[in-house]
Specification:
InterPro entries: CDO_1, RmlC-like_jellyroll, RmlC_Cupin_sf. The protein is an alpha+beta fold. The chain is built from 5 helices and 13 strands. The chain has helices at residues 16-21, 27-39, 52-61, 66-69, 186-190; strands at residues 81-87, 94-100, 108-109, 115-122, 125-130, 145-151, 156-160, 165-169, 176-183, 192-195, 202-205, 212-213, 216-217.
Length: 218
């Protein structure tokens, strides 16, 4: 099911790069292009030629307008959330719209040595961060919570494996929507690990696929 309303293209002042594409773009389209340009010559957020704060600013500066991203926001109430591909960033990243079902969320997971920026496009999302279970730890024990925070519409969060692992949850009664930039796109290629909150044991998920790509359901 699609969440929201049909996208409406709104005219605006185009950059030289955008004009060269001869395409009318709304502010969300321009954000997608700006993120791609910022990551173009690099291999990820840890590269010397990429400014994490600049990428964060790009996402913060975009004020969510459902008409602009609605075509990517395909939800499924039978799932905790759906992953909808928006752009692959010239192979340097994945930009996804995630649609979170009411009262559901993700398992505790890592990011496959990639980095993630998350912007809330609609609703509220609760992020709980946990300490990584110690390597070689044989004793099963509950995972340690580091922090918990509720992110509201237009707020941006940054997450990477050196900060721990996390889960994201929609505690609301309606669908929530978020925009995620992953770089490098390791999870799409090699999967990620999920963790048992009570024991700390992890298992590998090989295929973190997409529910839709470029506005078309797969």
């Amino acid at each position: 099911m699609a969440v929201g309303i049909v996208q409406t293209v709104r005219p605006g002042t185009l950059t030289a790069f955008e004009c060269s594409l001869n395409v009318d773009m709304n502010r969300f389209d321009r954000l997608v292009l700006a993120l791609k340009e910022a990551l173009g010559p690099s291999s990820g957020l840890t590269s010397d030629d990429v400014d994490v704060e600049f990428l964060t600013k790009l996402m913060k500066d975009y004020k969510s307008d459902e008409r602009e991203w609605a075509k990517f926001a395909m939800g499924d109430a039978s799932r905790g959330y759906t992953r909808n591909l928006v752009d692959e960033g010239n192979g340097k990243s994945n930009l996804l719209v995630l649609v979170w079902s009411p009262g559901k969320g993700s398992p505790i997971h890592d990011h496959g040595n990639a980095h993630c920026l998350m912007k809330i496009l609609r609703g509220d999302l609760t992020e709980t961060r946990y300490a990584f279970p110690e390597a070689g730890e044989e004793e099963e024990k509950p995972m340690k919570v580091i922090s918990e925070k509720v992110y509201k519409e237009n707020q941006v969060a940054y997450m990477a494996d050196e900060l721990g692992v996390h889960r994201v949850w929609n505690r609301g009664s309606d669908f929530a929507v978020s925009l995620h930039l992953y770089t490098p796109p390791n999870v799409a290629k090699g999967g990620c690990h999920i963790f048992n909150e009570e024991t700390g044991k992890k298992s590998h998920i090989k295929n973190c696929g997409y529910y839709s790509a470029y506005g078309k359901k797969l």
